[in-house]
Each structure stands twice: as C-alpha cells, then as structure tokens.
C-alpha cells in the first residue's frame, strides 16, 4: 500500500494534472477486448477517424488489426512518425495514415492506466502505462522508497522481466520510467539499468515552478507536447559498427535543450548562429544527429525557414568527418552524403536544391572567396568549431556562405581570448547558446571524474632548466658524445628520451597498471613525446612485462610473445623511416618504427582490439594520434609523458572520462570509478597556467587532485565509524554486527541501516579508488571489516547476495576473499553454485543450532535466487515456477510461517526438482534447446500426443540451429526472422493451437538468446 501511496498515486495525480485521463483497469480491459492485447481499440479507432479526413470505420478497424500484429519497435516508431500508408476503401493507391498529430497536440487523446495486466505464459502487471491515441508509449514502474530491495535495482529488474515476458506491451514503446516518488529515471526500450538517467533540468521552465521533484520529472518527460517532441525527433536506432546490433537511443536532457534552442533560433529567423559546448563524452555527435533530424523533419512545428533546409556538417579532420558520417548513417538519417573532393563539395553547395545533408572537412573551403547563390538555404553545423577559425578557414567559409546559419559545436570550453570563435558562432553579448560542462556531465553520470597524480618527480622535466638537467642526466656519457648532442641543441624531447628515464618510467607504469587497471580488465594509453619515444617505450615496457611473466613461471619465449601482444603502437609514418643510417642507435629506432607502424587497416584492428575484452593489447602507445576523437570507454588511465597545453590537454585527458562497466567471467561487473591521468613530464605542475586562459567555472574541475580523494577517504571513514558506534556495533565481528543490524531493521531502524550502508559503500569505494596510494594503508583493516559486514548484513536482511562485493574492484575483492577465509566467515560469505559438490552440505541440519540453521537458510536463499534468476533468463517457460517457489519459501520464512529448518527442507526438495528438470532432456533423448522449446509448447497443447509434441519441438529447434549455422546474426535480420516465423508457424500447424502466433513469439524470444551467434 505504501508503494501506491508514496509513488504510484502521486505519479497518477501528476499525469492527470497534465491532461491525461485516468482509466480504471477494468474500463481499459473492455477497450482491449482480450487480456493479451495492449491497444485501446475504441480510442485508437476514434483517433484515426478524427486525424484522417474521410476515414471510414471499416478502414479504421483494418488499421487497428494491422497495428495489433506489428512486433518491431523500430517499425512502430517509423509509423508513429508518419511513415505509414495503406490501401483504403475506394482508393486506387496507398494513402498516408496519420497515427498522431504532432503539430496539434490537443487533437490527440491521452490516457493513463494503473495496474495494467497483460496475459501471457507469464502474465505481468505494469504499475502505470501512458497511452497516446490508445497506443502504449511509456511504461512506469513505481516502487516504494522505503523498501531496501527497491534501492538495489528491483524496479529495473521488473522492467526487464516485463520486456521479456509481455513483449507486446513494448513493441510500440518509446521509453520506460522508474520512480520511487522522489527519484525518477528513464531509459530506452531494452536499455540496461546503467543507461537509465535523470532529467534534472525542466528547461524552459524553472525548478521552483514545480511543487516537488516527481511533478517536475514527469512534466519533463510526459507533458504531451514534450512527449510528442521526443517521439518525433529524439529517438534513434543506431547500428553498432563492431557487432552490427541495432541499439535504441533516447536523448538526454542537455541534447533536448540544445537542439530545441537551435531549432527555435532557426524557426524565429532573427538570429543566425549559436555556440554549443557539450563536454567530451556527453554525446555531442548524437546531439548533432538529433539537431539534423529535427531540422529535416520538424514534425512538431512549421516555419518558412524550416521548409526543407540544406544541412552542411563540417569537421576539421578526416577521421572526425568519417566518425560523424558513420553516426549519421548508423542512425538512419535521411540521405547524408560525404563530399569526397573540393569540387564535389562546391558543386553540391552551389547546386542548392533542398533537403541535402552534406558532410565534409573545413579544409575544402581553403581559398574559397566567391559566394554561392542561395546560401541562406544552408544551415552549417561545425564540429570542434574552435579549430576551424585557424589559418583564415573561418573567413573562407564565411565568404562562401555569407547568408547561412552557423551553429558551432565543441567538446572543450572556448578560451576567453578566442574572439574569432565567439564572433563566428555567438550572437552579440552571448557566449554559449547551450552549455553542458564538465561538472554537469560528472554529476549526471554521463562521464566519470578525472583524477591526476604526478609520479617520479625526480624525472619530471622543467623546461626552464633543460641545460642543467642535461648535464646531470647525461653525466655518464663520454664527453665527446655529450658535447656532440649539445651542439645539436638540448631539447625537451632529448631529455625525455634518456634511456634510463624511459626504463624507470616503463617499470613504474607496469607496477601502477597492475594495481589499478589489470584486476578489472581496464586498459591504458601512454602518450610519448614523439615517434621515436613511442618505440623506445614499447621496447622498455615489453622487457618489463616479459620479465614479470617469467617470474610467474611462463617460458621465456611465451613471455616475450605475450608481452609483445599486450602493447600496440599508433603513430604516423615518415619518409626517413626506411632510410639506412650509420649510427646504430638511429638505425635501430628506424627499424622499429618500420616494424611497428600500422597502416589504416592495422590501426583500425588495434583500436577495435583495445576496446575488446582481452588483454591483447592492454596498452596503446601514441604521440599525436588518438588524442582526440578516439572513444574507448575501457581506457582507465592515461600515462602522460608529453607536454600538452590548453585544448590539447583537455581533449587528451578526456579519453579517460567515458563511463564503462566491465563484465567479469563470473557474470558480475565492475564500473569504472573515474579516469586517471598519471603525469611523468610535469604538465600538472603548471596546470593552473595551462587552464588559466579559460573561464574559471568552465574548467575548475577538469582534473581532480588525489589530495581531495585522500581527504574524502578520511572524512567518510570517520562518519562511518561514528554511526557504527552509535548503532552499538563497536567491538563486534562482522557476522555478529550483521545479525545485530538485521534486528535493528526489524525493530524499525531501517533508515539507520540505509545511512550506514551508504557511508560504508562510499568508504570502501573511495579506498579502492585511491589504491595503490600509500595513504590507504592505515584504513585497510577497517575497510575489510566494512566490506565483509555490508555483504553479510545484505544477506541477512534481504536474503540475497549483496551488490557491494560484486561491484568492488578486483583488487578489493581479492583482498576480501583472503580476509573472509582468515576470519572463518567464508561459510557465510562465499556463495556456491548448484553444481558445486558442497552445495547440499547446508541441508544437513541434524545437531545444528537454530542460529546455524538460520545462517544456512540465508545462504541458500541467496544462492537459489541467483541460480533460478540465471535459469529464468535462459527460459522463463521452463524455469519460471522454480524462481517463484524460491521467493514463496523466503516470504513464508520472513513472515514466521516456517522455521529455518523447514525452509531448508523445502529448498532441498526444490534443488532436487531443478536438477531433475535440468537433466530431463537426456531421459527423452532430446537436445537441451529443443527440450526448452518443448516446455514452451506444453501448456498450450495439453491434449496433444507427447511423442508428436517432442518431434515438433525438435523440428523447430532444427530450424533455428540451421539459421545459427548459416546466418549467425539472423536475429538482427528482419526479413530472415519473418521467414523463420512463417516456417515455425507451419511446423506448429498440426497442433491446432488456439493462439499459435503467441506460442511462435514465445519460441522466438527464447531462440534469440539460445541460438545467438556462431555455434
């Protein structure tokens, strides 16, 4: 009831205040006709007739039937946006059919239904469903803010469960919302929980115009005109270039805000430019896609300036041109075209026409002074616009397109003194049309913060003391050679490439990497001062890694090969690389430059491998390349040995700011806590000078000193220890404290537990973030106690495996495993799988105390919840009943209906049933996957001959196995899937099922996972 009172009812009230009509579930059921349908039939038919002049009831009924069978989310979106036509009664050709009036929101019908039940093999009830014209566009999961389980992601799990079990509700879906009445997050259909995000800014309104956060959040996402705007212009399906998967993406609030500011400026027609700074890693390329999409289609507004504009997208680098072009194409934007040459670009621009989207580099305007006709028809989007003003490029662009509208985009702030960029892209008196800065992105979780640390200060280089450093570091060199080097000129690069310096830093990098990145599978970039130092670092690092591997017992040749594969180099080629030299040192370097140079295909392969999950490579060594535009979320550390300044520094360090979650082999995952810059050359010694040319509030948190993290660790540790003492947990071991907290929670002190849990998690996470910093050592014992206690308490309170331990970094987890064994807590903490030979030990309860039986019950509850959850993910039809049985036994225990011993007996029986089910296919002589298909079919064909049913299941399995063998990516091929559905339906026909389509869809949902990828 509290869930309804605290979350569901306030959400319902907020929606009705915005004009949504609340329908009682029974009234909605009558409109749906059948409980397994999701469209509100009379609402849709009435809307169709109102929005399409002269549309008769018969045609409206046919359209309803057509939409009822549409099972593709992307195709639904196309039709909702207007790409839908069909042959209407009395017409000689197909006519367009309008499903939603985007320009007149008041002409549509808006409803919300609570407790919306959809019948399926595993029926589900959604808390709230939002409809436009009888079509379900948004599902809202409302959870009670007081329940601990809901704070650990249960709402997201339920959305995932609904998407899997009742997919019909999500075929037309735009996005989903989860809310506990205080915090609200939204995410695209099918998105993992990590991609759900808040919408904090209600632009163009102010936060104080709303009575509470829930009202503000729901207005931002669901106010009718905003919802239609998002549906029309801010949802795209992008093809992942690495795996070919189609990924649905919904805009973030800063993208919605920036695009609408720019489009409104074009529509008004009075101002002709704007500057947009969205910090790197926050989706700037996608913002440009959304802007181009709205400028092209502008479904929600009309203006003379938006009739069918030409759009020119410019970058200052070929690789960025390719990157943005691929993003546009991947998102299905209409007719984007890359201009391959200067002549092609000028011809296309001069030709004019309407509705063109051209992509090119700014350099193709070099020397262009003649204005083209009709330049007012062009809207120019310039990426990294601060760089386009150099070498008169901005002037040439202006001369060619004097009357065009210009919108500049940048991932870094503009310098205070950069008058050219402001003049070109900002209106008088305006700096940024829209700003989404470094702090904004970190606060929203769009990027991670960047920490920096200076290492080996005795080897850092002060440029003003180069001569002194040279005499000190090259003192052992023969006088003649030293003088010869001096005559050539003592440079920063010469000092930086001192062999001993390179060797020592390579050793330091490897030791640092082993402790910060390697335990969790993250990777690192090394930025060297020039091409020669790239290969010098490569050789030194390979020696260090190989030596370490040999110490660990690897054969020398294998160690050398492994070290070699762990390092990649990306640099440009020079003509001199192939020249012979009489100087052995120069000759050696040139040979290495030739050996390790990667051509375009090799570079692409290296970048792809770096983004992959293996440790080959773990390092990319660069000097100039990959410092901008390169996006590898798993890059955790940048080792910096090159003096970078201003924009170059900001762009380079931002390679580490992408969010990333690494999946471990055991199925758990760890999130990248931050990016890390390790400075060997002294850049950060002069950081204030490097950033002083920017506005202070634009760059104040570009990098965070480790000193702040050290202070944070001390503060959080003190707060945790204080609350622990106030709750009476002092001098208790972890197990005793966990059961003491369980009792406190049952006595109503849940809020104290939440606060202790929050502080404890922060303490452990901060400790891990700082490691291997020596300041953590005094906190190690308290950290071990805290982390183990949090997991035990989570198990005791929720009968589930704690998320804390699973999301800790590898270096922390390894430490904890040793700790729990040393303290004798391993029997409680270390959860086993059902296949573990010792899994059934807990069922032997004879002679055990009630407390020991309770411990065993808690552990078995956590283990079986995990086991059944994994099995249900494989096949809900086969294993769903086991998962529900686990939850039922836990519920009865918590309500005092059964004792721990009885619960363990019930778990033992359940375990036997799971094992029997898992091996049942062998008794029937069936393939495991075909047997799973049989289990899907059985409830729908109770009267069928079981032998015939088995044969049909095998035949259906063979269809999908053949698809897997011939087309490993069949599940992304709509045409191929359609053929398979038709073939499956034919095979099912002899069963004379009442709803063969529903059975076929269930089988396909299973097959998409079971027959995915190469065999």
From TrEMBL:
ATP-binding as a keyword? yes
Q: Which residues form the Helicase ATP-binding domain?
A: 265-431
One Pfam family here: T1RH-like_C
Give UniProt keywords alphabetically.
Answer: ATP-binding, DNA-binding, Endonuclease, Hydrolase, Nuclease, Nucleotide-binding, Restriction system
Provide the reaction this enzyme catalyses.
Answer: Endonucleolytic cleavage of DNA to give random double-stranded fragments with terminal 5'-phosphates, ATP is simultaneously hydrolyzed
What binding partners and quaternary form does the record give? The type I restriction/modification system is composed of three polypeptides R, M and S.
Family, according to the entry, reads as follows: Belongs to the HsdR family.
Q: What function is annotated for this protein? A: Subunit R is required for both nuclease and ATPase activities, but not for modification.
Query: What is the protein name for this chain?
Result: Type I restriction enzyme endonuclease subunit
Q: Which organism is it from?
A: Brevundimonas halotolerans
Q: Supply the source organism's classification.
A: Bacteria, Pseudomonadati, Pseudomonadota, Alphaproteobacteria, Caulobacterales
């Amino acid at each position: 009831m509290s869930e309804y009172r605290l979350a569901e009812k306030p959400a319902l009230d907020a929606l009705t205040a915005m004009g949504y009509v609340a329908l009682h579930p029974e009234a909605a059921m009558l409109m749906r006709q059948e409980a397994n349908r999701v469209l509100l039939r009379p609402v849709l038919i009435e809307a169709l007739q109102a929005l399409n002049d002269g549309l008769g009831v018969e045609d409206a009924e046919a359209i309803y039937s057509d939409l009822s069978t549409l099972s593709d989310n992307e195709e639904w979106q196309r039709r909702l946006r207007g790409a839908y036509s069909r042959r209407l009664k009395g017409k000689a050709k197909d006519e367009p059919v309008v499903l939603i009036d985007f320009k007149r929101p008041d002409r549509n019908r808006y409803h919300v239904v609570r407790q919306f039940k959809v019948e399926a093999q595993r029926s589900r009830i959604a808390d709230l469903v939002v409809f436009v014209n009888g079509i379900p566009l948004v599902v809202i999961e409302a959870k009670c803010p007081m329940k601990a389980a809901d704070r650990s992601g249960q709402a997201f799990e339920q959305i995932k469960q609904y998407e899997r079990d009742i997919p019909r509700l999500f075929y037309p879906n735009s996005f989903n919302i989860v809310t506990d009445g205080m915090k609200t997050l939204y995410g695209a259909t099918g998105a993992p929980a990590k991609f759900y995000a808040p919408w904090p800014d209600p632009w163009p309104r102010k936060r104080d115009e709303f009575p509470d956060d829930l009202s503000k959040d729901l207005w931002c996402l669901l106010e009718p005109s905003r919802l239609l705007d998002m549906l029309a212009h801010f949802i795209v399906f992008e093809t992942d270039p690495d795996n070919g998967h189609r990924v649905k993406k919904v805009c973030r609030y800063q993208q919605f805000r920036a695009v609408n500011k720019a489009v409104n400026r074009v529509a008004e027609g009075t101002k002709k430019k704007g500057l947009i700074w969205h910090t790197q890693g926050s989706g700037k390329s996608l913002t440009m896609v959304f802007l181009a999409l709205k400028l092209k289609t502008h479904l929600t507004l009309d203006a003379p300036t938006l009739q069918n504009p030409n759009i020119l997208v410019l970058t200052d680098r070929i690789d960025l041109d390719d990157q943005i072009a691929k993003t546009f194409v991947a998102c299905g934007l209409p007719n984007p075209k890359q201009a391959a040459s200067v002549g092609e670009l000028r011809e296309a621009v001069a030709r004019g026409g309407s509705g063109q989207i051209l992509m090119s580099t700014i350099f193709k305007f070099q020397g262009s002074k003649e204005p083209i006709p009709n330049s007012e028809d062009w809207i120019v989007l310039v990426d990294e616009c601060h760089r386009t003003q150099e070498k008169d490029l901005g002037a040439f662009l202006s001369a060619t397109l004097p009357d065009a509208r210009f919108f500049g985009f940048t991932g870094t702030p503009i310098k205070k003194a950069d008058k050219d960029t402001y003049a070109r892209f900002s209106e008088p008196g305006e700096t940024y049309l829209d700003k989404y800065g470094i702090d904004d992105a970190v606060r929203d979780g769009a990027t991670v913060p960047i920490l920096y640390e200076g290492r080996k200060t005795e080897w850092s280089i002060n440029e003003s003391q180069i001569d002194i450093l040279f005499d000190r570091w090259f003192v052992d060199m023969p006088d003649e050679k030293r003088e010869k080097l001096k005559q050539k000129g003592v440079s920063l690069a010469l000092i930086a490439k001192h062999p001993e310096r390179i060797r020592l830093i390579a050793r330091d990098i490897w030791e640092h990497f082993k402790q910060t990145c390697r335990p969790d599978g993250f990777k690192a970039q090394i930025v060297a001062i020039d091409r020669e130092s790239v290969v010098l670092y490569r050789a030194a690092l390979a020696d260090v890694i190989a030596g370490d591997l040999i110490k660990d017992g690897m054969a020398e040749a294998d160690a050398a090969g492994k070290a070699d594969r762990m390092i990649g180099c990306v640099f440009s080629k020079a003509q001199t690389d192939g020249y012979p030299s009489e100087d052995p040192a120069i000759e050696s370097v040139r040979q290495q430059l030739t050996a390790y140079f990667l051509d375009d295909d090799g570079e692409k392969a290296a970048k792809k491998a770096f983004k992959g999950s293996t440790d080959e490579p773990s390092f990319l060594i660069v000097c100039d390349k990959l410092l901008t535009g390169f996006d590898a979320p798993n890059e955790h550390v940048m080792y910096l040995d090159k003096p970078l300044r201003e924009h170059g520094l900001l762009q380079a360090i931002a390679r580490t700011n992408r969010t990333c979650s690494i999946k471990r082999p055991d199925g758990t995952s760890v999130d990248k806590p931050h990016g890390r810059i390790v400075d060997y050359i002294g850049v950060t010694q002069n950081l204030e000078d490097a950033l002083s040319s920017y506005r202070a509030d634009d760059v104040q948190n570009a990098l965070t000193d480790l000193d702040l993290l050290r202070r944070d660790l001390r503060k959080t540790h003190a707060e945790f220890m204080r609350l622990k003492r106030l709750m009476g947990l002092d001098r208790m071991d972890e197990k005793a404290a966990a059961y003491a907290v369980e009792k406190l929670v049952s006595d109503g002190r849940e809020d104290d537990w939440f606060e202790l849990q929050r502080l404890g998690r922060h303490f452990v996470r901060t400790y891990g973030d700082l490691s291997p910093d020596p300041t953590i050592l005094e906190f190690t014992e308290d950290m071990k106690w805290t982390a183990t206690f949090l997991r035990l308490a989570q198990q005791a309170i929720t009968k589930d495996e704690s998320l804390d331990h699973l999301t800790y970094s590898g270096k922390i987890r390894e430490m904890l495993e040793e700790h729990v064994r040393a303290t004798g807590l391993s029997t409680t903490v270390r959860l086993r799988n059902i296949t573990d030979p010792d899994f059934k030990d807990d069922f032997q309860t004879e002679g055990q105390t009630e407390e020991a039986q309770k411990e065993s019950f808690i552990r078995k509850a956590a283990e079986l919840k995990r086991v059944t959850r994994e099995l249900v993910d494989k096949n809900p039809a086969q294993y769903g009943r086991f998962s529900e049985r686990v939850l039922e036994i836990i519920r009865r225990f918590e309500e005092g209906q059964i004792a721990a011993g009885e619960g363990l007996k019930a778990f033992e029986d359940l375990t036997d049933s799971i094992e029997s089910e898992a091996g049942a296919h062998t008794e029937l002589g069936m393939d495991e996957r075909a047997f799973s298909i049989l289990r899907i079919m059985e409830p729908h064909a109770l009267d069928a001959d079981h032998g015939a049913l088995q044969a049909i299941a095998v035949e259906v399995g063979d269809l999908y196995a053949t698809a897997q063998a011939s087309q490993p990516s069949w599940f992304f091929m709509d045409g191929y899937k359609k053929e398979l559905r038709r073939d499956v339906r034919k095979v099912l026909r002899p069963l004379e099922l009442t709803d063969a389509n529903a059975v076929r869809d269930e089988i396909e949902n299973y097959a998409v996972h079971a027959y995915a990828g190469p065999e």
